Amino acid sequence: MSALDETLEVRDGVDRETVETVQSMAGKYKHGWETDVEMIFAPKGLNEDIVRLISDKNKEPEWMTEWRLAAFRRWQQMEEPDWAMLNIPPIDYQDQYYYAKPASMVEKPKSLDEVDPKLLATYAKLGIPLEEQKILAGVEGAEDAPRQVAVDAVFDSVSLGTTFKDELLKAGVIFCSISEAIREHPELVKKYLGTVVPVSDNYFATLNSAVFTDGSFVYIPEGVRCPMELSTYFRINAENTGQFERTLIVAEKGSHVSYLEGCTAPQRDTTQLHAAVVEIVILEDAEVKYSTVQNWYPGDEDGKGGIYNFVTKRADCRGDRAKVMWTQVETGSAITWKYPSCILRGDDSSGEFYSVAITNNMQQADTGTKMVHLGKRTRSRIVSKGISAGKAQNTYRGLVSMHPKAAESRNYTQCDSLLIGSECGAHAIPYIEVRNGTSRIEHEATTSKVDDDQLFYCRQRGMDEEEAVALVVNGFCREVLQALPMEFAMEAQALVAISLEGSVG
Amino acid sequence: MTTASAVSPRAARFAARLKDTEAHLSSVTLPASAAWLMRAREAAMERLKGMGMPEKRDEYWRYTDPARFVSSAPTPAEVFVADDEPVMFGGIERLSLVFVDGVFSPEQSDKIEGEGLEIERLSEAGEADIHWAKDLYGTLEAKAQNPVPRPLAALNTATATDGVLIRVTGRVSRPVSLVYLRSDANAEMVLHHVVRVEEGGEVTLLENGPGAARVSTVLEADLADRATLHHVRAMGRDHQRAGCTHIFARQGAESHFRSFTLSVNGAMVRNEMVVWLEGEGGVVHLAGAAMGDGDFHNDDTIFVTHTAPACESRQVYKKVLYHGAVGVFQGKILVEQSAQLTDGYQKSQALLMDESGQFLAKPELEIHADDVKCSHGSTSGELDEDHLFYLRARGVPEDDAKRLLVTAFLGESLDEIEDHDLANDIRLRLAGWLERHGE
Questions:
Q1: How far is CA B429 from CA A177, B20, B183, B264, B326, in A?
Q2: What are B360-408's pLDDT values in tens digits?
């Protein structure tokens, strides 16, 4: 562990403990265990038969199989993108399992009680009280309980079970695995799948379209405020398995939902592939809040192993006054390639993006957002905080585009980077495209160690140095962390805030 | 599945580009030159053949279509007669060298000599194989081909018909003024200048005028320790012309380089600046003011690399855009691991005077050192209603109020010009332009 390496130079204003804690986050990966569950794998490699097999295993209708095959054929014509500021070792797409399923799931359990206890233990370790929630779900008047969270857990390729289902159904909310949705609600899936992220959108999204194994589906009917927060937990367990999940969220007119997503994977020497797609459709006056804490295994200090995380997330604000808010805390993965985006199509619609990305050791992250302003008076806000330590490279890449018809639209972007140690890098690559003169954009980016001006400001007002540093570092991530729902704030703080805040003052 | 032996589409596209470039260059002949210069030209030609000509799909040309710079002949551009203003830099005691349509005009130029400097024309330089510019001509251009290829600069190195070679050994009181006039609607100007400022030397270089229907200039500036170079440029008022310029500057310890560009009108202008801060305590300030009305495309592409510690770089670019004019800013600050204590700043702002204006920007930071202070800001928007209201409430007529606010907006970039007389001359042009175009 290099965290206590004496050669590490600690700069003014950054407490040694801060440096160590940040460094230790990658090294002491707390979710790095593996559950010994018997798995059923499809053969390694990728071809049309595998695509058919995945479709068949999920008992999908013909149109879905064809949809996947079309995506696969398209993917074969495509090239891996090379524009990101990432050093990606060649990926052998034939050396991956595209389908892995716990053996005990061959016959779908009738209830969570029939689920392999080892799987449930896995989730207990992850801190999701599935069982407890299951019990809660059966209790009269459970809807009065404060801050319930419905959870859909995805283990390698297969959705394990969704809690609170009945509760949600009463409100008219559909929350189930995407494979179930394809079977049970084909008309909804057919109507929306691939409409936000088209099949041929990009290399990894196309790959996902061909081989996605499971994921979550959420449908909030008109005027419904989802009675609880929805949550998905993804875990890659088996070795050499790629996880390709697909999430589709549809918020009808005037509805509201808050969705949480968390991810972990065991510690391994070999790298693993993760290529997910999230599509969100938001109609008039609806509001979706999507929060992610991404904590895939980042690899060891020498960059061995870890998850390659290539994710396409996009929200389409189709109706007027639609609203979307992305919040992400990215601490894991060896490579992160992720740009949750907002298409602001409806007039007066708005998009927000709050991000904290921490990279350490040999981690690389190229992440940011796209705000595409199409409608009139659309508004967007981007707050990105990057913290880079060890030998990591952390890049913010964002696009703000004001189309000619996006009159009187506004954007505000703030992206700040904090460097800890002299061997890491922090970069900002914003694209600003204003094609309507009545729109206004403001972009600011800073890169520094703890800002001297801010310290000076605090010092001038009578704080001692330690208090001042505490305040400044405290403030660095807070704007983003505060945007997280309560349930995730705890985990995110464990990952980010405590490590930074607890170390000073 | 694609087989391993198949060429990837990316590789195939690149091969096709090299083939096109080869064909494009087959008709190009290198100007007769002294042996050392010919070697530099041939090397540049080889570089160019290895990278190919730029294409619209290149990331580096994302916002500006290179077609007009790549075509074998320039798009004809009407000559604009600007006789309603005093001669640019006319009130300043200077050494004036005049090029008409890219051809040196001895009649209109001063005698090529000056105190504290050696100066001569590229086309007359060194029949002998020994020349101080031998190790410089094309060198900085070649260095700048990494990480992003700049083929148009290599093409200039290979084919420049003339230029000025200046070696500064002391403090030069009289600015060197390069004046680019034009008389022909189809002419092309390709000039390549080299400036070497020796330790402790100081010089001011002025450039002005539209030059030709299509202009390509390269300025390679090599600044020794504690050397100073001031550069002020006004690109002329011709509307239809196209221009692509490159400035490459390498700076030694505690050297100072300031460059300001005024760009009004012009259908297609791309100004690239590449600066390396290689000695401790170097300072570079780059600034530009651009104003366009209607058919105007102005692109500032800046790349500042901090290699040495404790250097300061500053970029201030302002654009005022009327009636569908397009402003582009691509700026980058690269701080290498060795460049601790860097102070890097970059500001790009556009004022869109009506709804059809466009501002396209990519302000980048790439930081590999931790004890640095780097920031950039980029804004785009209309005139502030509150400001306008404030002035109107105090009895200022609307047009005057707008002009006042635009002038104030541009003012920050003019502050980067140290010399007051030069700054005033630029200010006069801005005022004149606003008088003519400011609604």
A1: 67, 42, 22, 9, 20
A2: 999 999 999 988 989 999 999 999 999 999 999 999 999 999 999 999 9
Is the peptide bond preceding residue B147 cis, with omega within 30 degrees of 0?
Answer: yes
d(CA B378, CA A444): 7
Chain A positions with Cβ closer than 8 Å to B:
11, 47, 76, 79, 82-83, 407, 417, 419-449, 451-452
B367 contacts B374 by C-beta, under 8 angstroms: yes
What type of residue is A469?
V
Q: Determine if the peptide bond prior to A146 is cis (ω within 30°).
A: no
Q: How far is A208 from chain B (nearest CA, A)?
A: 17
Picking from B350, B366, B372, the nearest residue to A427 by CB comes out as: B366
Q: Which range among A9-13, A262-266, B328-332 has the greatest average pLDDT?
A: B328-332
Q: What is the pLDDT of residues A315-373, one digit of tens each?
A: 999 999 999 999 988 887 889 999 999 999 999 999 999 998 888 888 899 999 999 99
Search chain B and give the residue with CA nearest A421.
B370
Q: pLDDT for B198-243, tens place per residue?
A: 999 999 999 999 999 999 999 999 999 999 999 999 998 999 999 9
Average of per-residue pLDDT across B80-85: 85
CA distance B355 to B335: 37
Q: Could you report the per-residue pLDDT of B125-182, keeping only the tens digit for each?
A: 866 667 889 899 999 999 999 999 999 999 999 999 999 999 999 999 899 999 999 9
Domain ranges of chain B: 15-384
Give burial (CB, 10 Å; 0-12/13-18/19+) of A105.
Answer: buried
Which of A11, A423, A443 is the closest to B377 by Cβ? A443
ipTM of the complex in this document = 0.91
Number of residues assigned to chain A: 505
Residues 6+ apart with CB under 8 A from A95: A44, A45, A240
* Strands A174-177 vs A216-220: parallel, antiparallel or unpaired: antiparallel
How far apart are alpha carbons A255 and A164 in whole angstroms?
A: 19
Q: In the structure encoding, which two tokens stand for residue B58, read together?
A: 């290149």
Do residues B124 and B179 make contact, with C-beta atoms less than 8 angstroms apart?
no
Residue A77 near residue A66 (C-beta atoms within 8 A): no
Report d(CA B416, CA A296) in Å as an integer. Answer: 48
- Decide if A371 contacts A351 (C-beta within 8 A): yes
Q: What is the pLDDT, as a whole number, of residue A161? A: 58
For residue B323, what is the DSSP state? T
Q: Where are the beta strands (DSSP E) in A360-424?
A: 364-367, 370-373, 379-389, 393-402, 410-420
Which residues of chain A make contact with B364, given a CB cutoff of 8 A?
427-430
Q: How far is B242 from chain A (nearest CA, A)?
A: 22
- Concatenated DSSP letters for A183-245? HH-HHHHHHHTTSSS-TTSSHHHHHHHHH--B-EEEEE-TT-B-SSEEEEEEE--STTB-B-B
CA distance B288 to A397: 26
Rounded CA-CA distance A307/A273 in Å is 6
Structure tokens at A389: 């330590």
The predicted-structure confidence for A199-227, as pLDDT tens digits, reads as follows 999 999 999 999 998 888 999 999 999 88
User: Is B369 near chain A, with CB under 8 Å?
Assistant: yes
Give the residue carrying structure tokens 């904090």: A418
Side-chain-side CA neighbours of residue A225 (13 Å): 0
Residue A330 backbone phi and psi in degrees, to 5: -110, 110
Query: Residues 397..416 of B with a Cβ closer than 8 Å to A: which?
Result: none
Three-state secondary-structure class, residue A488:
helix
Q: Are A190 and A169 in contact (CB under 8 A)?
A: no
Q: Residues B214, B68: contact at Cβ < 8 Å? A: yes
Nearest to B350 by CA among B389, B298, B272, B278: B298
